[in-house]
Design a protein that fits this description.
The protein is α/β, with parallel strands linked by helices. It has three domains: 188 residues, Rossmann fold, CATH 3.40.50.300; 80 residues, Helix Hairpins (Orthogonal Bundle); 169 residues, 2-Layer Sandwich (Heat Shock Protein 90). 48% of the residues lie in helices and 18% in strands. Strands 3-2-4-5-1-6-7 form a seven-stranded mixed beta sheet, sandwiched between helices. The radius of gyration is 35 Å and the shape is elongated. Bound molecules: adenosine-5'-diphosphate and magnesium ion. Magnesium ion binds next to helix 10.
Length: 476
């Protein structure tokens, strides 16, 4: 990305070379008024080479915008010249002479204490100069380098109704910036002088068109991808809010049911059918409470008890439990990074995440396979975060859970984090949504790689607190 993108007239800077291809007089007036006024405001010397408009017309544009034109003219902050004093001096256009003139004017402007030189020329004179178009094109091409080197801002004005389309097309290709209407476009079609080795513009033009086809296609794809990601994260956000809100209210109801059922239970002696009924209410309410807890986790409304943690010891403390879950048919492999950074997290919540993931992996490998739990440190650079909406550059601790199971297709991948989404007969569809909510609440995110029949790898990213402070966490 350009560090200084040019999008409007106001973004134009010294060193830029632009063409203004205008359609009508209002457009000309609008752009030129802004262009000249901005130069004056920025303390630049403005030279306007008039040809199709008189200096008086342009001055009046500025006066109507309450620019004190006469004082600027008196102090030679604004200078009008004609094409016969510049481009067509001694009756012919001489590209080299013109460039020398610009260099001279730029030096003079600086010597006079201006911030720089801002020049613009009406090019209508070039219509009539026979054989001039080739010289003109050569001049314009050289101007891009000259403008940059001498720190001059140049805008060449072409009235679209006055030139042949073939000529305008050439002009379009040799300016790095194009003003269309009042917009400034970084020129997609620009052919830098260096790209024109063969000095044959049509060949270069064709190359540029072909390249641009691909560039455009990639841009479209990336926009579509971003839109899709945005849609998905907005959906998760909305579902999370609803789930969290409902769960919050539901928790109070469940508590009330439990309290009443407990009172009721005590009313009746053991063996009484009504006591058993009360117990049934209690155990159902208990399950409801668990569900509520999971929904709260997904909605990121759990109360966290974070502390400095070593993720390896979280995995370690669950190892026996993990072995029990995976059973004999599945090989459990732990690859734990010894120099792992610390995270600030709620231990029991992370245990929950790990368990949910491991249970899923186990269920994805009915005929056995390998389950790999891995920890490592990762540093993400800005360029590596594309494609994951929550991802950001920085240092992270990563927990990966990979299986060699049935994998997932596109449809499942799109919905797996949604609460109650399940492909299993007796699934709850809450394992991944709970994991999603917990990790988001910890300032992290989860990525997944999976293909049908090729296994699945979940990667959980948690912000690293810094390796130096981990030793403190280990010893405490
Ligand atoms: N490791 C995995 N391999 C294949 N599919 C998985 C895996 N983990 C999750 N899934 C898919 O995501 C769905 C949602 O998972 P989860 O939220 O844990 O709910 P549940 O396990 O109750 O179905 C699963 O039904 C399954 O289709
Ligand atoms: Mg599950």
């Amino acid at each position: 990305m350009n560090p200084h993108p040019v999008r409007t007239i106001g973004d134009l800077r010294l060193g830029n070379h632009a063409t203004f291809l205008y359609q009508n007089e209002p457009e000309h007036r609008n752009v030129m008024t802004r262009f000249v006024r901005q130069g004056l405001e920025r303390g630049e010397k403005v030279i306007y080479v008039a040809d199709s408009h008189t200096p008086e017309t342009v001055s009046n544009y500025l006066r109507s915008e309450r620019v004190d034109v006469d004082s600027h003219l008196d102090r030679r902050r604004l200078v009008f010249l004609t094409s016969s004093e510049t481009y067509l001096r001694r009756g012919v256009f001489d590209s080299e002479r013109m460039r020398a003139m610009i260099v001279g004017e730029a030096e003079r402007a600086l010597a006079e204490g201006f911030a720089g030189l801002r020049g613009t020329g009406e090019m209508t004179w070039a219509r009539g100069s026979p054989g001039g178009s080739e010289k003109l094109i050569e001049y314009e091409r050289a101007l891009s380098e000259l403008a940059e080197k001498t720190h001059v801002l140049m805008v060449c004005q072409y009235d679209r109704s006055s030139f042949r389309p073939e000529f305008l097309l050439d002009i379009l290709h040799i300016h790095p910036l194009v003003i269309v209407g009042t917009e400034v476009c970084e020129n997609f079609y620009y052919i830098a002088p260096a790209e024109l080795e063969d000095h044959y513009l049509p060949a270069a033009r064709f190359r540029v068109c072909i390249e641009n086809l691909l560039v455009r296609k990639r841009m479209e794809e990336s926009v579509l991808r971003s839109m899709e990601q945005l849609r998905h994260s907005q959906k998760m956000e909305a579902v999370g809010k609803v789930a969290g809100g409902v769960a919050h209210d539901f928790r109070n109801l469940v508590t009330a049911i439990m309290q009443s059922a407990e009172l009721l239970e005590e009313e009746f002696p053991p063996g009484d059918q009504r006591r058993e009924d009360a117990q049934k209410i209690l155990s159902a309410a208990d399950r409801a409470a668990q569900l509520v807890t999971q929904l709260l986790a997904f909605g990121m409304r759990q109360e966290l008890k974070p502390r400095m943690l070593d993720l390896n010891s979280v995995v370690g403390s669950l190892e026996n439990m993990l072995k029990r879950v995976t059973g004999d048919k599945v090989e459990l492999v732990l690859l734990l990074e010894p120099e792992l950074g610390a995270v600030k997290a709620d231990q029991s919540q992370l245990e929950q995440v790990l368990m949910n993931m491991v249970v899923n992996a186990r269920e994805a490998m009915p005929d056995g396979g390998r389950l790999t739990v891995r920890t490592d440190n990762v540093t993400l650079e800005p360029g590596q975060c594309r494609g994951v909406p929550e991802a950001r550059p920085g240092k992270f601790v990563r927990l990966s859970i990979a299986d060699t199971g049935i994998g997932m297709g596109k449809d499942v991948l799109e919905q797996m984090f949604e609460p109650f989404f399940t492909t299993k007969q007796s699934g709850t569809g809450l394992g991944l949504s709970v994991a999603y909510g917990i990790i988001r609440q910890h300032g992290g995110w989860i990525t997944v790689d999976s293909e049908p029949g090729r296994g699945t790898r979940f990667q959980i990213y948690l912000p690293a607190i810094g390796a130096d402070r981990l030793s403190a966490a280990r010893t405490s």
